[in-house]
Amino acid sequence: MKTTERVLAIIAALALLTQTVRHAYVRWLEPRASVLDKYDRPLEDRISSATSLDELLKLYDPVRREADRVRTSGNRSRDEYEDRQNTEPFRSETQLRQAIQAWEEKAKEVRALWFYWSLGLIILCVGFALHRFGNRWAGLTLEIAAFSEFIYWTSPSFFGGNVKEFDRLLTHKLILSAVSAALLVGVIRIQRVFEDPPVPGSA
Asked: Fewer CB within 10 Å: N-end or C-end of the chain?
C-alpha cells in the first residue's frame, strides 16, 4: 500500500505544483500586450478596464442600437452583409458581445470552481478519517477522489480574453491550487507516506 500511496502522492504533487506556478506566471508575468494593439486600442482598453458586467452592457447597448439601425436601413445582398461585419459599428458590436460572453463564462467557472473544490474538501475529510480510523483502502480511494477534484477544477484555463473576470478566475485558481498543494503536504506528513517502516530487530 505504501508504494501505491507514494506514487499517487508524487503524481498529485507534480500536477498541483506545476499548475500553481503556471497560474502565477499567467496572472502576473505573461505579456498580454501586442505590437498591433495601437491600431485597435480604444475599445480594447475600455473592455479590459471594465470592472463589472454592467459596465460592459453600458458600452454594448448604444453600439447594438446603432448596429440594429444600420441593419434595418434598406435591403442588402448577402455579400454586402458579410463585408460590413468588419466595419463599424458591427466590429465593435462583435467585440463587446464576445467580451460579455467571456465574462459570463468566467463567472460561471468561478462558481463551479468553489462548489467542486469545497465538495472535494468534504470528500478529503471523510477519506482522511476513514484512512486513520477505519478502512485504509476506502480512505485512500476517497482521498484520491478528493485530490482529483482539486487538480481538475484548479487546472489552467487556456482561453481567457481580456476581461477582468478572467483575472479573478485565475486568482481563485491560484489560491485554491496552492491550498490543495498544502493539504497534500499535510496528508503526506500525517499519514507518513514517505517514511519507511522500522526494520524488525533494529535498535
From this structure: C
Residue 172: name the closest of 113, 107, 105 by CA: 113
Helix (H) or strand (E) segment spanning residue 164: helix 164-190
The three three-digit cell numbers of residue 75, written as one number: 435591403
Burial class (CB in 10 A: 0-12, 13-18, 19+), 92: buried
For residue 45, the model assigns a pLDDT of 80
For residue 163, the 8-state DSSP code is -
Q: Nearest Cα to 176, choosing from 148, 155, 145?
A: 155
> Nine-digit cell at 198?
522500522
Q: Can you tell me which residue has the cell 468534504?
A: 122
Task: Check residues 70 and 17 and name the one with the higher pLDDT.
Answer: 17
Give me the chain's average pLDDT, please. 87
Q: What share of the chain is helix, strand, coil (3-state, %, to 5)?
A: 75, 0, 25
Give me the amino acid identity at 6: R
Distances in Å between the alpha carbon of 1 and those of 4, 136, 152, 165, 191? 5, 9, 24, 43, 12
Amino acid 24: pLDDT: 93
In tens, the pLDDT along 73-130 reads: 766 555 555 556 678 888 899 989 999 999 999 999 999 999 999 999 999 999 999 9
Contact between 49 and 167 (Cβ < 8 Å): no
